[in-house]
Amino acid sequence: MPAMNKLYENIIRFFEKDFSEKIKNEPEFIQKIRLENFEKFKNKGFPTLKDEKWRKTNLNKFTNQYFHPLLHNIVKKNSTDVCIVPDLQTVNIQLINGHFAGEEKLNVLENGIIYGSIQSAFEKYKDLISRYFDKLSKNSTNPMDWLNAALFTDGFFIYVPKNVKEINFQISQQLDAPVDALINSRNLIVLENDAQINLIQCDDSNEHRSHFATFNTEIFVGENAELNWYKYQNINNISAMFSNTFAEVKENGKLYTNFYQLNGKLLRNEQFTEIAGKDVAVDHYGLYLVDKTQQFDNVIFVSHASEGSYSNQKFKGILDDSAKGFFNGQILVKKDAQQTNAYQKNDNILLTDKAKISSQPFLEIYADDVSCSHGSTTGQIDDEALFYIRQRGISKRDAQLLQLYAFAGEVIDAVKIPELIEPTKDLVKKRLNGELDVCEDCILQCANK
Amino acid sequence: MSKKEEHQDKVLKEVTEQDYKYGFQTDIEMEMFPKGLNEDIIRKISKIREEPEWLLEFRLKAYRAWLKMEKPEWAHLQIPEIDFQDLIYYARPKPKKKLESLDEVDPEILEVYKKLGIPLEEQKALAGVAVDAVFDSVSVKTTFQKELKERGIIFCPISEAVRDYPDLVKKHLGTVVPYSDNYYAALNSAVFTDGSFVFIPKGVKSPMELSSYFRINSAGTGQFERTLIIVEEGGYVSYLEGCTAPQRDENQLHAAVVELIAKKDAEIKYSTVQNWYPGDKEGKGGIFNFVTKRGICKGNNSKISWTQVETGSAITWKYPSTILKGDNSIAEFYSVAVTNNHQQADTGTKMIHIGKNTKSTIISKGISAGKSQNSYRGLVDIKRGAINSRNYSVCDSLLMGDQCGAHTFPYIDVENRSSIVEHEATTSKISEDQLFYLQQRGLDEESAVNMIVNGYAKEVLNQLPMEFAVEAQKLLEISLEGSVG
């Protein structure tokens, strides 16, 4: 029996009454996916504290609330055309409430890159999409994924042909509903062999409305291809955002993510990465800076199905006030994945006695010739170091900030795009200083103001 | 391959490829209940044991709770369906006249223990060991009671304790592991038939190691032991538990509950060598070891130390845990778990820090060979009030062959800012400060690491009066000394 609550009941009613009508024009395979996932969601409902991966994450505050499902993009906005990172050439994508906001719904660049609204791509690139869509997420057991697959309204699609390299995308994803809104958005990124792109994404919101948003992204990295993804999440403190990513990386491919969770009532990022070829390199970096009554979760699963690959998870968090953090990292090394090097590290600093962190670094290993390690630490600011800094005439607060900033450094130092380093540093400093507010434009831009 | 590695390989081979040495059955007249479990069976168990009304109530409450509970499914284990109505919940050798000396013990039973290498006959010579020998469900003979009694120490089967010290048992039974704690603990609470009871009075340090051997013998009987150890203020006890079982094809269930209570300044050392029949090379047969062990450091400055060497059982589901309630209390968990063939183990510990300045250490070494699956699962929970607490955990795994699995599932929850929690796996690193300190004193790194990590567990294991203590030591040597540094 699914747990009954306002949001669940509304979603079921909405899907059965209004939504199933609306999707009738969609390609059959999409409809099928929606219906299957809806049935699963209907049977299970939202995750509860009894579900293993949700034992530390209480959704009640949100599931007892009414959210209006947004079917269309009801906000018109001038899209951010300028590049938000100075001196960086980017292709700009703007999503408002999960809907692709560009004038042209689908764009083809000279080099063959296709990008635009995924809804539009279903029609025009049906064959291409059907080869990839839901291939990685279909076995998910997470009700949030079922909800997303059943109810997504739009999202972005990026296709990078063979050999196309060094393209930067800037993705500005804004939650800006005029009412409390339920938003479900779905993205697909396909990199053919030898392709290489960078994504710079910011998730932002307006100040006054509560959003309940699921953003699922499927990523296919071809042989020898490379995707680098930077994400800055800064939404208001009455919204919840669930960003789940499924990635498959083929032989010699590289996947690199570097995510910053800065503000939001509840931010939960789940990453599922399947290493499906030899000599793959995967890096997942994350920094979560949590205060007030915020809660930030990271659930990271890296599966090594092929030999000779490398993966690294590094997540660091600073928790202040009554904040909560949850880290669940897992390395799965399958039987044939010999010569795997897999690492995982989660470090936390608690600044108060009301903050809570739950860290679960898991290893599941079925191959013997591997080098795997994990570590987890939780502690506080080193008093001796603090004393040392203060001796030099620096105030206690500044000394603390210096230490916290140094702690965060390991994630920031992993930023590989030179133009992005300074803005990232500024953001983190501002956040640590308590000066980072909700910003209606991309947070990277606001940080410079 | 270096010399050291070769040596390790050799020892591991010796240990892991050995056939089960303790497979034999004894035919002793048994008194059995019919198969199945219901309230009548529980009433019968209670009646035959002449139990007071409150204990029957405890059993019935547990049974009713158990009916509503679900089997835990979260462990990394493939557990075949168990038909709880197909088990016999009570079996004991037919009552004979009261025994006065060892000579009167059934010679067949003595023979069994002799084969097992249990020094029941020689124990007076092997000074310092009192044995509460449990044969299936009823304790056959307890010795050394007199000497212990002089110091006020109570060491007897729990059935006797219920009869002779009902207030003590009533006050403490189920306080650490409540009857509704989990599926198997509830089952145990409903049908437990025997086990040991230890009471150490205020200020008394037990002059000898107390030990108890559990045997599962009759075909198709489950064994539900219940052990309760209470150590009053300033007391100390070291308790050893060792297990072997005869070879049999049918899986057998063992769902024990162990409760430890350490009051102010008290210390309990609890050591286990578990060498139950693991099933044959095809994974047929073997014991299901689903055990709930938990201790509470109730008073300030108390200490509980668990040491386990797990080499047997087809399936192990076991998490000896400590609740650190008293301020400055200390808990330790040292574990070596070896799995081979088709064995499965999901074992670890829980350290629940409630008191201030509490410290816990977890050292877990898993070795998996054959087609086995070996998981460490542990919780470190630092509550808000447990200020200045510390936990240090190391969980290392050694894989032998590419058919087995080694897994680590640590759960770390911290709710205050003054505590330090460190968890490491595979790369065994100790606090740099401690290492630095010892190295400053002229020790090389490996000696320093060994001294810190190894010393304590070895000290406890060296005391084990069993022939497989050698085996245990070999395993420990490999796991601790071989892989650290």
What does this structure look like?
The complex is a heterodimer of chains A (449) and B (485). With 449 residues, chain A is an alpha/beta fold. Chain A has one domain. Chain A contains 10 helices and 21 strands. In chain A, strands 1, 4, 5, 6, 8, 10, 12, 14, 16, 18 and 20 form an 11-stranded mixed beta sheet that branches. In chain A, strands 3-2-7-9-11-13-15-17-19-21 form a 10-stranded mixed beta sheet, with helices on one face. In chain A, β2 (91-96) and β3 form a beta hairpin. In chain A, α2 packs antiparallel against α6 (143-151). The longest helix of chain A has 17 residues, at 6-22. Chain A is globular and about 70 Å long. Chain A starts with 5 loop residues before the first helix and ends with a helix. Chain B is built from 11 helices and 24 strands. Chain B has helices at residues 3-17, 39-48, 53-68, 107-116, 145-150, 158-164, 166-172, 183-191, 432-440, 445-461, 469-482, and strands at 30-32, 91-93, 129-135, 138-142, 154-157, 196-200, 209-215, 226-231, 236-244, 252-254, 257-262, 267-275, 287-297, 303-310, 315-318, 321-324, 330-339, 344-347, 350-353, 359-368, 373-382, 390-399, 405-414, 420-425. The chains are: A alpha/beta (449), B alpha/beta (485). The A-B interface holds A 52, 56, 335, 338, 348, 350-369, 371-380 and B 74, 76, 382, 384, 387, 397, 399-427.
Oligomer kind = heterodimer
Structural class of chain A: alpha/beta
Termini distance of chain B? 17 Å
The number of domains of chain A is 1
Q: Residue ranges of chain B: pLDDT <50 for 5 or more in a row? A: 118-130, 136-141, 214-221, 463-468, 474-485
Shape of chain B: globular
Round the Cα radius of gyration of chain B to an integer and report it: 22 Å
Tags for this model:
heterodimer, A: 449 residues, alpha/beta, 11-stranded mixed beta sheet, 10-stranded mixed beta sheet, 10 helices, 24% helix, B: 485 residues, 6-stranded parallel beta barrel, 11 helices, 24 strands, 25% helix, globular, disordered C terminus
